[in-house]
Specification:
The complex is a heterodimer of chains A (about 350) and B (about 625).
Chain A lengths: L25 H12 L10 E5 L14 E4 L5 H11 L4 E7 H7 L1 H10 L3 E7 L34 H7 L4 E6 L3 H13 L4 E6 L11 H4 L4 H4 E3 L7 E2 L5 E5 L5 E5 L20 H7 L8 E8 L5 H16 L4 H5 L4 E4 L5
Parallel strand pairs in A: 1-2, 1-3, 3-4, 4-6, 5-6, 7-11
Antiparallel strand pairs in A: 5-11, 8-9, 9-10
Helix pairs in contact in A: 1-6, 2-4, 3-4
Chain B lengths: L13 E4 L2 E9 L4 H15 L2 E7 L14 E9 L10 E6 L2 H7 L3 E10 L5 H6 L17 E5 L1 H9 L6 H5 L2 H12 L5 H11 L3 H20 L5 E4 L8 E7 H16 L3 E5 L6 H7 L7 E5 L3 H14 L2 E6 L1 H17 L3 E7 L16 H6 L9 E2 L6 H16 L2 E7 H5 L1 E5 L47 E3 L14 H16 L16 E8 L3 H13 L4 E6 L1 E3 L5 H5 L2 E8 L4 H10 L4 E4 L8 H13 L1
Parallel strand pairs in B: 1-8, 2-5, 5-6, 6-7, 10-11, 10-12, 12-13, 13-15, 14-15, 18-19, 18-21, 21-22
Antiparallel strand pairs in B: 2-4, 3-4, 9-16, 14-20
Helix pairs in contact in B: 1-6, 4-8, 6-8, 7-8, 9-10, 9-14, 11-12, 17-20
Classes of the chains: A alpha/beta (about 350), B alpha/beta (about 625).
The complex binds thiamine diphosphate, iron/sulfur cluster (SF4) and magnesium ion.
């Protein structure tokens, strides 16, 4: 292209609205990384559109200086589907919470993902309902003591990554709010994927569920509790990079010490492009504290994209029948004429 | 009797001319009665009769064969006069089995013609229909009718013999035998049906041939047996000059949308989730993609409505359609459309409720839901088409209103209009007004783009995402007028609630005044809306012919009401509001205008008969 886009900066994406999350809420960090990532994509600002549901996280679009739609609880994927069908050139981001996406909006999440709509879904997982002041959510661990579960919650939590892999997601990733570099890199990867990108972000709710993810975010702790995934590389982690994950004789993952007996070659090598989702599912199932939790791109495969296919069907129909002929449509089927001089 | 019996020579039978005839085909769901009815409608319409139809089928695809629950019927009224209803009483009833006879005989008028497939009147069928003995055996009950017992199953098998069909395949043709017989009886030209068979079964020549033989066999049977001493002709109707076609309400909606999209050069995004009786809109529209239409079968109605909000935000003509249960689910997202002031149309093809109710039957009981069925103050314009063909115009009006006033608009159709058919004058393309879709392209203040900066009609601009310089955020939270920024102050909320309501109320200044059928004042005003138009109009005309001082207004715009409604209501001594619900419009009219309007309600899943409304008019006048 001969016309150069003006180089945008993070500032260009800051709206004039005062950001109203609680002090030290993890959402701030995600907002900052998003504002940093978008200018790097080489897409004009007016082409970005943020769609959200309801929740603390869903206030996000108000703080981004581009197009935005703060919709209703749980329905953002469906709203985004309409946006994308009507305006396919837009670069659409869905911002949602654990309650928004997995409780009230579970159905829409599932269907947007299986359709492989070309959108990026960022799920801010704080394992709590923030906006309604601290009830347990579908990702809260069993036994969570919250406002609505003073004796401990009784239901088993959903694992967001397992859910979306089950929905045939083509891009699945995870990151942590305060792991700024990794988060920015992960959002960038998500932006570049064609089809639905799903990113779970561990987000600290400083008021109602503080520290839920310290194991994965605190320096000195996280090194032993998470493993950064890299395509084609073995799963190695630990402060001293002295631990790894390998598959045992039953094909199950196990944590091993890297020493004389076990070398890198014995470890599990990541393949984000594996068509078969078994590896992605196995990685998603690695949970703290038994395993280091995988961070980064877990799955990245290519499938037909829904909105593009919808558009193509319209174009193909026009190709086949020509642009809709109104006269012909009006006169389709049997017609007959009533003469004016009929007695 | 058998075909072999020597007939009277055809000349000995005479042909009688009649104005209006009502036929009902009824049989088991698997008997092809809807098809027979549709074909009869087609040939009558093409011949030039005015026609009006009432398909009536069970909710179950195949209820147990032979039972009352499984009976499917199709009524058609055809006439040399202008008609508005499918008729109160049936002149000719075709009953394919005992259950069909039992559940339909009450509607056959005394002296009417009854044609039955006598082969189906065997023990097990009689039992399933609840007959203790065969009603065809010298039953007093049928004495009032001209009964023709025709061994249709056997004659159809005979007709298709030699084609190598299985018995099931052969028996499937008996609807065409019945149809052929009725074609003869009413002097119909079977050509459109023969063409249809060719188009439909061209690739299966055996089946095509079998149906043709059955149809011809039926006609020949009528022609050659002495049982039918008279046959009838119904001259073409004196409809306004022009070109006509047959159309159902759902077809008209789909066609209206596709043409609106094409003429306005805007993309149309239609989102829906299958539900009777609205699904055909999705089916029809999904064939019309080359008009610039995208169809989206969503995961549920909430998603369909949410996608509609998203599509409107994205800049498309956005439409969703459903029926009562689905509209309930859409409520919250309709509120989102309302508060974000985006243009979209929500079609409700009403059916019997509450809950799953009567999926295949008609009703008008979603009116108050359309008025008030959302949280908060959320008035939306409501338009109700009055006939199948009118749906074509109503959907375009709804879209135009939505775009012009930046608001969701509700279109209230019903099962009767949706599935019913009528001759429809094909409009000239030049007579169809394009919808002017106008997006704002430049910031509207020195301070940048304000999404809620309104014009003198309180309408906000529509900015298409992707337009540089107009980046903005909207949502379901209360917002400051002008800037659109989130704001919860008490004064602002009152101002915005009031502004949104006034914007909708102001539409009254842009819709046509009500036209009165009859004098502008008098003893009784009948007020109706939606699909009851035909019955109410005809009943009032009949009363007027009796010399009664009765007039009729039919509301197409239900919110806001036309400006002259109040004056009219107050110019009559009495007001009667017939509705297929428990009196919903009358609640609104009584509270809004403080008139003592009388509700006449019917809630049986069936349209009004003319006589019912006519009798009510007389009764009320006598009080
Ligand atoms: C239909 C509906 N039901 C309930 C609510 C109340 N509500 C608002 S946000 C929310 C939960 C938010 O939790 P989550 O999605 O995890 O977002 P967070 O606030 O934690 O970011 C609930 C229950 C609502 N706004 N709408
Ligand atoms: S309640 Fe929790 S999630 Fe919500 S803004 Fe405050 S800290 Fe953030
Ligand atoms: Mg949450």
């Amino acid at each position: 292209m001969s016309t150069l886009l003006p180089q945008l900066t993070a500032k260009d994406f800051a709206s004039d609205q005062e950001v109203r999350w609680c002090p030290r809420c993890g959402d701030y960090s995600i907002l900052a990384q998003m504002k940093k990532v978008l200018p790097e994509l080489g897409i004009p600002r007016e082409k970005f559109c943020f769609v959200s549901g309801i929740g603390c996280s869903s206030r996000f679009p108000y703080y981004m200086n581009c197009y935005g739609f703060h919709s209703i609880h749980g329905r953002a994927p469906a709203v985004a589907t309409g946006v994308k069908l009507s305006n396919p050139e837009l670069n659409v981001w869905v911002i949602t919470g654990d309650g928004d996406a997995l409780s009230i909006g579970g159905n829409h999440l599932m269907h947007a993902i299986r359709r492989n709509l070309d959108i990026n879904i960022i799920l801010f997982n704080n394992q709590i309902y923030g906006l309604t002041k601290g009830q347990y959510s579908p990702t809260s661990p069993r036994g969570s003591r919250t406002k609505s579960t003073p004796y401990g919650s009784l239901d088993n939590p959903l694992n967001p990554l397992s859910v979306v892999i089950g929905c045939e997601a083509t891009f699945v990733a995870r990151s942590v709010d305060v792991d700024t570099k990794h988060l920015a890199a992960t959002l960038t990867r998500a932006a570049h994927h064609k089809g639905t990108s799903f990113v779970e972000v561990y987000q600290d709710c400083n008021v109602f569920n503080p520290g839920a993810f310290y194991y994965a975010s605190k320096k000195g702790e996280k090194e032993d509790n998470i493993v950064y995934l890299e395509h084609g590389k073995p799963l190695i982690f630990g402060k001293e990079k002295d631990k790894g994950v390998r598959l045992n004789a039953h094909g199950r993952p196990e944590v091993v010490e890297l020493n004389g007996g076990i070398s890198e070659d014995d470890l599990l090598f990541h393949d984000e492009n594996a068509e078969d989702p078994s590896l992605a599912f196995l990685l998603a199932q690695m949970r703290h504290p038994e395993f280091p939790e995988p961070m980064g791109v877990i799955r990245n495969v290519s499938r037909p994209v829904y909105d593009e296919s919808v558009r193509n069907q319209v174009l193909a129909a026009k190709e086949l029948h020509g642009d809709g002929d109104i006269e012909q449509l009006l006169n389709s089927g049997d017609t007959w004429v009533v003469e004016s001089d009929q007695a | 009797m058998s075909v072999a019996d020597l007939p009277l020579s055809p000349e000995d039978r005479h042909k009688e001319s009649v104005d209006t005839v009502v036929i009902r085909f009824c049989g088991d769901s698997g008997d092809g009665m809807q098809l027979a009815g549709t074909q009869f409608t087609n040939v009558s319409a093409v011949f030039g009769n005015d026609v009006c139809t009432l398909p009536d089928f069970p909710a179950e695809i195949r209820a147990p064969a032979g039972t009352i629950a499984g009976v499917s019927g199709f009524q058609i009224c055809f006439s040399s006069q202008e008609i508005h209803t499918p008729g109160d009483e049936v002149d000719t009833l075709v009953a394919m089995n005992p259950a069909a006879l039992k559940s339909n005989i009450a509607d056959l008028k005394r002296g009417g013609t009854l044609i039955v497939n006598e082969d189906a009147f065997e023990k097990s069928n009689l039992k399933k229909a609840g007959y203790e003995s065969n009603p065809l055996d010298g039953d007093e009950n049928l004495a009032a009718f001209r009964v023709h017992k025709v061994p249709m199953t056997r004659l159809t098998r005979d007709a298709v013999e030699g084609l190598g069909l299985s018995q099931t395949e052969a028996d499937r043709c008996k609807n065409f035998f019945a149809l052929g017989l009725v074609y003869w009886l009413y002097d119909r030209d079977s050509k459109p049906t023969l063409d249809w068979i060719e188009a439909k079964f061209g690739k299966k020549p055996k089946i095509a041939e079998a149906n043709v033989r059955a149809l011809t066999g039926g006609s020949n049977f009528g022609f050659s047996t002495e049982a039918f001493t008279v046959h009838y002709e119904v001259a073409p109707a004196k409809l306004a000059a022009g070109k006509y076609r047959k159309i159902t309400g759902n077809e008209a909606l789909a066609m209206g949308m596709a043409i609106a999209a094409r003429l306005s050069n805007a993309d149309l995004v239609f989102s829906g989730y299958p539900i009777t009786p609205a699904s055909d809109i999705l089916h029809e529209l999904s064939k019309l993609k080359h008009f610039g239409v995208s169809t989206f079968q969503a995961e549920d109605e909430i998603a369909a409505m949410s996608a509609t909000c998203g599509a409107a935000f994205g800049g498309a003509l956005a439409v969703t359609a459903s029926s009562g249960p689905g509209i309930c689910l859409k409520g919250e997202a309709m509120g989102l459309g309302m508060i974000t002031e985006l243009p979209m149309v929500i079609i409700d093809v009403q059916r019997g409720g509450p809950s799953t109710g009567l999926p295949t039957k008609t009703e008008q009981s979603d009116l108050l839901m359309a008025f008030f069925g959302r949280n908060g103050e959320s008035p939306l314009p409501i338009i109700a088409p009055q006939t199948p063909g009118d749906c074509f115009w109503a959907i375009q009006e709804a879209l135009r209103m939505a775009v012009e006033f930046m608001t969701p608009v509700i279109l209230l159709s019903d099962g009767y209009i949706a599935n019913g058919a009528e001759p429809w004058m094909v409009p000239e393309v030049a007579d169809i007004q394009p919808i002017k879709v106008k997006y704002i392209t430049d910031p509207n203040t020195d301070d940048g783009y304000w999404p809620y900066l309104r014009d003198e009609r309180l309408v906000r601009p529509w900015a298409r995402p992707g337009t540089p310089g107009l980046e903005h955020r909207i949502g379901g939270l209360e917002k400051r007028d002008g800037t659109g920024n989130v704001e919860y102050s008490p004064e602002n909320h009152e101002h915005m609630s009031d502004t949104r309501a006034r914007k909708v109320a102001n539409i009254a200044n842009f819709i046509p005044a009500l036209e009165v059928d009859g004098a502008d004042s008098g003893d009784l005003l009948v007020v109706s809306w939606g699909g009851t138009f035909g019955a109410c109009r005809t009943a009032v005309r009949n009363a007027q012919q009796d010399g009664k001082r009765v007039s009729h207004v039919h509301l197409r715009y239900l919110n806001p009401f036309p400006r002259n409604l109040e004056t009219l209501l107050k110019s009559f001594k009495k007001v009667l509001i017939p509705e297929l619900n428990l009196g919903q419009l009358s609640i609104v009219i009584r509270s809004k205008y403080l008139v003592d309007a009388r509700s006449y309600s019917k809630i049986q899943g069936k349209p009004f008969k003319v006589a019912e409304v006519y009798n009510k008019i007389n009764e009320f006048l006598m009080e």
